[in-house]
Amino acid sequence: MKVDLSDFRVRPGEPVKLKHLDTHAPDGLSSEQAAVQTAQWQERLARLQDRLYAEAKQSLLVVLQARDAGGKDGTVKHVFEAVNPQGIIVTSFKVPSEQERAHDFLWRIHAHTPAAGMIAVFNRSHYEDVLVTRVHELIDKKEVHRRYQQICDFEAMLSSQGTRVLKLYLHISKDEQRKRLQDRLDDPEKRWKFNPADLEERARWSDYTDAYQDTLEATSTEVAPWYVIPADQKWYRNLLISKLLVRTLEDMDPRYPTSKLDLESIQID
User: Fold this and answer.
1) How far apart are CA 209 and CA 218, in angstroms?
2) How confident is the model at residue 266 (pLDDT cuts 50, 70, 90)?
3) Assigned fold of 5-252
4) 229 pairs with which residues across the strands?
5) d(Cα 201, Cα 199) in Å, to the nearest integer?
6) What is the pTM of this model?
7) Which one, of 203, 174, 172, 182, lies nearest residue 70 by Cα?
């Protein structure tokens, strides 16, 4: 089954209604088929990442956003396992510290953007500061829209300096979130993941839906697009993201550097 990745892309100015977007895989695709395809895409991902690292001229920033239990950690673990650890940095942004709150909201973000040759993954990101802060009414609508523009400007600057920005919203249903949270309670080995605060956030489901829709609409640009990834089934999520990473890196077209030396004439005794 062929999947058109453009179907998941939020085009600039396009209205977003999450309730109309699938959270699950299409009929006709099995987890076994997806596993085979994912392995093939990850082989290509590994080769492209090696070229990106060797070239050391471009970089890739992958932003992961989702509701609680949406699959951000699982994506990092299962999709990026194909990548050489030397070429990737994962940053998880927690509640801002006192020092971070004393600066503008993007201050703590910029230091973690990828250097040339690297892939950086943000597990949560600067978008928390227009999502959580809005839902909890820590900032007003005027500030939300100001931050939207500041984010777009920031990402445009990164793009102009050679960093490709790829933003993924992992789209799960409310029922799937309930199952995953319950699983954390039922499995002793997963209880460490459970946070009672997740239930408070779950009660704000509609508020977060509105916040995500507005954010996706306002900040999906040509140079830093959002993709809404169906994520109820982890195997389908992994397949789509693996393919999307490969297609993105192929478009970046990193090349192994060439040597000015006459390497053909060198013999090692």
Assistant:
1) 14
2) confident
3) Rossmann fold (3.40.50)
4) 170
5) 5
6) 0.95
7) 172
Which contacts (CB < 8 Å, 24+ apart) does range 134-139 have?
Answer: 134/211, 135/204, 135/207, 135/208, 135/211
Q: Radius of gyration over alpha carbons of the chain, in Å?
A: 20
- Check if the beta carbon of residue 58 is closer than 8 Å to that of residue 257: no
- Confidence class for position 260, pLDDT limits 50, 70, 90: confident
Distances (CA, A) of 211 to 89, 131, 136, 218: 28, 6, 11, 11
Can you tell me the distance from the alpha carbon of 182 to that of 187, in angstroms, rounded to the nearest whole number?
Answer: 9
Instruction: Give the separation between CA 42 and CA 243, rounded to whole angstroms.
Output: 8
Angle at 219 between CA 53 and CA 247, to 5 degrees: 35
End-to-end CA distance of the chain: 53
Structure confidence by residue, pLDDT tens digits, 125-155 = 999 999 999 999 999 999 999 999 999 999 9
Residues 81-99 as b or e (16 or more Cβ within 10 Å = b): ebbeeebbebbebeeeeee
